[in-house]
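Figure 2 data, in text form.
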Amino acid sequence: MLLNNPLTSYNNKAMEKDMRKRILTAAATIAILSSAGAQAEFANGGFEDGYTDWTLTGDPYVLTMQNGQRTRDDYNTYYGWEGADVWFNGSPYEGNSYAVIGSNGNESNGSLLSSAWTATNQFVSFAHAGNNTSSSNDKAFAQIRDLSGNVLAQVSVWGYNDSVWRTWQLDLSAAGLTYGDQFQFYYQDGASWSVVDGVEQNGALLQAASNVPAGVAALSLLPFLFFRRRNA
């Protein structure tokens, strides 16, 4: 009979193997696309759209550079100060813009709080420069918070009063976050001025709560369900 033909059985197995490979490849691709979509929720980390998706306190503004020209957004002078971007005197870490906090000198401060972001990768990194006092209590700092405002991770950042960007990172995995969890990034200026740019997620993909990369667990079952139904 045809069903017992060795060649037919071989072809069926080959087709099943090929189909299994195609579906698993599709599952991995969808997982990657899901990761990219989640990263898109990490909105405006480079301040290219001003302070869209950020909540502000104090006297921050956005500095944009185009063709060597510096433009300040929502900047107000204070007793003759030119603004902290003049003291920094550097170009954006990436893109054309960066955030300036504590723009009115040592007497002022401010903070940035992101919108709700979706965890996809292990680290949140950001670039920072600024000027701080020698006291560690006056250092600027960044935090990872849950949506209730609870602090999950914190790093103090040092300012050297120069025009050099330095990068810092917070570990979402160590903070107890898994793939798909939501969180907020908070930055607080220290005793003096700060500039911030390039807030982003990077590093390895986080694991889902089931310890399987998001999207793969359910999709990887498709080949087995398909073949079982086919052979039923």
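Caption note: Residues 40-205 form a domain with the Jelly Rolls fold (CATH 2.60.120.260).
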